Amino acid sequence: MRSYSNTYIFIFSSIMVIIVAALLSVAAMTLQPFQKKNVEINKKQNILTSINIESTAKDAEELYEKYIVENFAVNANGEKQEGVDAFKIDMKKELAKPLNERNLPIFISSLEDTKQYIIPVYGKGLWGPIWGYVALQEDLSTIFGANFSHKGETPGLGSEIDTKDFQSQFFGKEIFNEQGEFVSVSILKSGTADPNSKYEVDGISGGTITSVGVDAMLKDCLSSYETYIKNIKN
Predict the structure, then answer these.
(1) Residue 216 located in a structural domain
(2) For a tag on the chain, would you pick the N or C end, based on fewer CB atoms within 10 A?
(3) How far is it, in rounded angstroms, from Cα 100 to Cα 98?
């Protein structure tokens, strides 16, 4: 049996490590544009879902261009921010800033000659981040549609926030009361929400912490747009 010196083994191992690292680096650089594109397409699909437009990876970009007619960012005073790409804003990073330093993205869609204002939301569930989009009708209070996603909520429990059964409850609910005060939409214990209430929906059965997370996410994120919404209404 042929034996090799320690020096030979060390040099051979080092060369192999360098070669493998180089190949992985090239693969990562090659795949990066495709990964970035997939993330963009998925984001467009989620935005479209909030206005009840179903899409696939193949037609999401076409439908997005058809229905999303404008996007921009505002600050906490409701003023548009020039030179800011709303689509590229990372809500996690923005929400970590003080309110007066945030860039708040807004997407506007047009369906059957009516306008919808789509607001991204981001929060924390039981096991990780939760996020989504809430579309408001032209009165900027009534919810037209909602879409929620998660990273690692419990299957069959908290993960149910990404189902139509949960999301459809938000249609027709309102985030401002009759006095014009911001109230958001409260997520209550499963089975306890008043079906006639404009301001509450049922939470996920067995997914209390995730439901609480969605409740907090809506209040925290939607309230950031309160000044902008009131400016438009006035």
Answers:
(1) yes
(2) N
(3) 6
